[in-house]
Amino acid sequence: MIKAIITGAAGFLGSHLTKSLLNKGYIVVGLDNLCTGKETNLSAFINHPQFKLLRVNVANPEVRELEEVQEADEIYHLASPASPKFYQDNPFETIDINTIGTRNMLDIALRTGAKFLFTSTSEAYGDPEVHPQPESYRGNVNTFGPRACYDEAKRLGEVYCYEYYARFGVRVKVARVFNTYSAGLRNDDGRVISNFVNQALSNLDITVYGDGSQTRSFCYVDDTVEALRLLMVKKDTEGEIVNIGNPIEYSVLEVAQLVKEMAQSNSKITFHPLPQDDPKVRQPVIDKAKKLLGWEPQITLEDGLKRTIEAYQAQLV
């Protein structure tokens, strides 16, 4: 039986990954300090006999000595605030979890021989000057701005992964995750899909920043989780960085209009100043994921939005 450690297990992506691995028969140990994660995300399986949640900050060196992390086969290091709203409110914790926390978890992998997956981010590309973005692109990141605590911490986390792979042979894999969504996102998360759906269903103004011409690529969470699982289990991915995202590009205004239409909303679309360093374009090249994982997204934006809107509507009843 495979034992997996998931940091950030109570977060949006972590809770979906936890559910997926438990359904596949894994033993799962979740680590989360509940800074932005919510224990309610795990309520469906909190009493599962093969799952244990520990409230712990993985940036604390004591995490390396926990009895529950010994004899791990796989480590998924997902812990980190991911929404600009939350990482800008918690910049030092965001830096620590992606640097010190990454090293702590790599030390566990080194000792146990576990495979190690680090969820980096498309934010590693910053406001890209190359479009779409392949893994070979080195990025255009501002080191002295409000997004730097997340962008640069993730980039340094990748460096730790490289050093542990090159020097010690730790079986690392790095996923650069692009925008992922579903109904599991917090209502106050502040990211595009959760904002638009909540505003549309409440008939509030749908807030678009800038003129809405900036683009994003949205991947439904089930597709993202499957890609992470494949990245972990495939041997040819050791020492590799792989983009995980949907290569179909939409403008933010297009998404706002689609959500408004699908939610049958009376909301007005309003425009607001673009935040500092907000990327103008974002679209992954996924040739590497196709080759190494045999993976590409299966769920269209329309289908994913339909599922998301229905789930949010059920919560409002």
Automatic annotation (TrEMBL):
Question: One GO MF term, please?
Answer: UDP-glucuronate decarboxylase activity
GO terms of biological process kind:
D-xylose metabolic process; UDP-D-xylose biosynthetic process
Compartments (UniProt record): Golgi apparatus membrane; Golgi apparatus, Golgi stack membrane
User: So which cofactors does this thing need?
Assistant: NAD(+)
Q: In this record, what's one Pfam family?
A: Epimerase
Top-level taxon in the UniProt lineage? Bacteria
Identify the residues that the record assigns to the NAD-dependent epimerase/dehydratase domain, covering every copy: 5-245
Which keywords describe this protein according to UniProt? Decarboxylase, Glycoprotein, Golgi apparatus, Lyase, Membrane, NAD, Signal-anchor, Transmembrane, Transmembrane helix
| Name this protein carries in UniProt | SDR family oxidoreductase
Please tell me the species this chain comes from. Answer: Cohnella luojiensis
